[in-house]
Amino acid sequence: MVPEVGAIRNEIRRLRFEHGEMTQQQLADRIHLTRQTVNAIEQGKYSPSLEAAFRIAAVFGEPLESVFRYTEGE
Amino acid sequence: MSFREKTAWVSVITMSAIYGVYFWTAVHGAAHDGSLHVGGLLQAIVALVAAQVVLITAAAIAAPRDAKAPRDERDRLIELRATRVAYAGLASSVAFACFFGAFDPPIVFNVNALLFILVASEVLRSAYQIIQYRRGA
Fold it and tell me: Quick one: what percent of chain B has pLDDT higher than 90?
């Protein structure tokens, strides 16, 4: 039986709200990604590269593990 | 809809429509005498370039910020995945065409078959990009 793959969850939406209701476009501009990519990351449809993940965490001044969390599959 | 997705839509629609007319003419039209319909092919290429330039320029004017932004990592990943799928289609279709080439068909058939394979691969590539953009992948 093949084990289910886990998922990467994130707190970007909450962190954007807590940082002056930052828009997806504002975040995208600061990390050099498109707004559509930020939206896909936020919805968990796209897992960013490690470099992009670090850039996102740096924008919010949080450690990586506070922004992204890996959840094991069942 | 992102600018990249719009350009993929432009590619799918213009290539399907313009080369669709060309291949329809090549199969059913005046070129049925066995000669290559060079004029029609040139018309198709010019029409394709003109249509794509006009539509992509219009998309860029509508969203200049999106158009100026360079491809990001997700755009590049989607492009690579789409190219991989299209390459598989291209390679298998060319192998198929080579097999039929062994039966010595008219050269015009071979040329049009290879052109069709190239166009179909490009349409497949753009269509696969659209699917991935729609899924948000």
Answer: 55
Is there a contact between B36 and B108 (Cβ–Cβ < 8 Å)? Answer: yes
Q: What is the domain extent for residue A39?
A: 7-62
In single-letter form, the type of residue at position B53 comes to V
Domains in chain A, number: 1
Q: How far is A61 from chain B (nearest CA, A)?
A: 22
* B27 lies within 8 A of chain A by CB: no
Is residue A71 a part of any domain in this protein? no
Q: Which of residues 41-70 of B touch A (CB under 8 A)?
A: 66, 69
Q: Is the ipTM of this complex over 0.85?
A: no
Nearest chain A residue (CA) to B65: A34
Answer yes or no: is A69 within a domain: no
Q: What is the CATH number of the domain that holds A25?
A: 1.10.260.40
Structural domain contains residue A68: no
Nearest to A46 among B2, B69, B136 (CB): B136
Please tell me if residue A34 touches chain B, with a CB cutoff of 8 Å: yes
